Every structure is written in C-alpha cells, then in structure tokens.
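I am going through a labmate's work and have reached the protein record below. What it holds is a sequence and that sequence's fold in token form. Please read both lines and tell me whether the tokens look consistent with the sequence. Do not assume that whoever made the record got everything right. Thanks in advance; the entry in question is below.
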Amino acid sequence: MYKKSLSLATALVALAALMLAFSACSKSSSASSAGGASASSSSAPVTLTVWESLNGPDEFIKQAGEAYTKQNPNVTIKFVNVELGDSTTQIALDGPAGVGPDLFAAPHDMLGNLVSNGYVLPTANPDSALKGVLGAADKAITYDGTKYGYPVSPETYALYYNTALIQENQVPKTWEDLITFAKGFKGSGNQRPFMMDVGNAYYTIIFTTENNNRLFGPSGTDTTQTYLNTADAAKGMAYFQTLRKQILDVNAADMTTAIGDAAFQAGNVALYISGPWNVNNFTNAGIKFGVAALPSLPSQSTPAASFSGTRVMFVSAFSKNPDAANAFGAFLMTPEMQQLRANITNTLPALNVTTNNPYAPGFLAQLDYAFPMPSIPPMQKFWDAFNAASSNIWNGADVQKELDAANAAVLAK
C-alpha cells in the first residue's frame, strides 16, 4: 500500500513538473515570438546605460527610454552624456574597465576600428530589427558582410542660406554662381557672403570627387591607395585653393566650424555649409533660413558629392546585458521611434517616415549625391592628414605635395 501511494505521489509530482515545464516553455516561446522587447519583460530588473550627445539626441534617448520602460517595466534606461566625437575613445578605456555603457552612439566611419578592436557586437536579428532601413544607412553599418549596431540617423551636409541676406532664387547651383554672388555681395559690418570650415576634411573632400574619384576607391575599401593624390583630386583641390581670393580671403584658422557656426547663428553669413545637427541651433537663434543641395563643381552638372555619415547606436561588447541592449537598439529603429527622433532632433530618419522637419528635403536632395564615409581602419588616419592638407592648400601651399603627403600619412604602417 505504501509503495503504491509512493508511486502515485511520484507520478503526480512528475506530472506537475512536466506541466510546469510546458507552461514555462510556452511563455518563453510566446515572449520570443513577440520580439526582444517583450522577452525582456519577464526577466530580472535591468538598467541599460546609454551614451549620447546633448542638444537633442539626449532628449530622444530619455523619451524613448520612458516609452520602452512602459512596455518593459523591468528595464530602466540610464542616459549618460558622452559626445559623439568622444565615445570611441572612451569605450576603449571604460569598456574593459567594466564601467562603460551597454549602448553608445558613434559615427559609422569608426566601425572598422571598433570591430577590429573587439569593442562592439553584431546586430541581433538584423533582418527584422533593420526592416525598412534606408540603403545608405544599411550599407554604413555593414563590415565584412556583418551588420553592427542600429543606424538611428543618416546625415550629410548641405548649403544653408540666410533669407535675410540672399533670396531663394539667388541660391547658387554651381560654385561659379557662388563666386559671382560673393563678388556682388553688399553686406555690412561683419557680414560675409560665404563660409565653410576649409580645414576640415569632412567638408573639403567634395573637391576631390571629380570624375567619380572616391576616397579609398569606388567601394571605399582599397587599403593600398587613398585616391587623395590622383589627377582628379589635385585638379579639384587646386580649384578649392582659388576660392580664397575669389570668395573670402581669410586664413584657414579663421574659417573653423566653431567660427562659422557662430557667424551664421548671429545672422552674419549668407551661405554656409553645415549639417542637420545645426537646424535646432539656428532655429533657436531666430535665423530665417533654408537648405539646398551643394553647388556643383566646374566639370559637373549635379551637386558636389559629399560624405554621408550615419549615427549608429552600437551595443558594447562589454555589456553585461547584451540581449536587453539589442532589444532596446531594435526598439529605436521602429517607425514610431524614428519619427520621434526626427521630430526632436530635426535630423533625418533612417526609415521612410513623415516628420515635421521643413529642412529635410534640402538634406535629402544632397543625400542623393553623397557617398558613405569609408569605415576601414586606415580611415582613422585620414582625418588629421587631410585636415592638415586642406588648411595648407587653402593657405597657399603646393597642392600636389600636400596631397602626396596626406596619401603617405594615411597609408603609413
């Protein structure tokens, strides 16, 4: 009798265990099918640290974090201010030390460096997480056939124009038109017809792109030649050098981004090359402006080819919660969050969603003629080398010698 009772009890326990296991499996399966966000809601409490910049991106992360926590009460999003230009340097220090973020924003051209050093993880379930992403943004996060991170916003620069100093029908379509406008400009005081950061490779690269000449070759992956010192590049940079005497005869040191931003924001510049990150700054300053595609180079009939960049939210390889971090990254790529980000920051969305940004058409018009910044490791040496070459050329140095020196510096082992 005792043996029979024991056998029956054992059977009941086993049956209960089996039912419990089936129930847990069913819940797990249901959560998995609902996506990473739902799956994390049945987990233990998690705090995800996210590095982002101020002046818009921070507010987006805060609002997106609140929305995500409503759907996933166990997940808290903690914003920490680390500017875009500092994050890749800081992750190298804070990541291995165990005090870094779970996700961090960085420009896509740092991807090769981040991957080769083992600082970032591949995108989880990219086919679903990145569904509908614009081609330029998708390409930007692909390295050796693998996708990394979540491309929250593609961007390029274009031509801002101050409507108090230039009429819309006067906005130059070519650099020759810009020269003509500058020579006839009747500004007063500190007002100038045009400004750009002439010592910044991000902008000056446009003058190397004649005849489809591209940095590191057509695919941006040639590590044997930069294409910065080709005949086409030299011709374009020689033309760039002539602009100083024809448009604005000042030293490169007086044409920095900080000086240009401040001048346009003060209403003292008619035409200025910059990106969507300045829309909020100029709007808040009360400047009435528009945005148009860049002027075309002398041998071209289309806007000069600019760099396109993509702001990427990367999952740190040092994260203690990589699944939850990937789930939040995927959440940032949903249409609702992409629309929210575009409306808060006045930058471009990575999905085809409607925004309230009246300046988006100007940047999108330029984006059609932009090419992604290469993301191979030699790209990290490009900036200092071509920054210096650009400044020196603007200030009168020998064009070919400067380009040869830049080429050698970038390719140096």
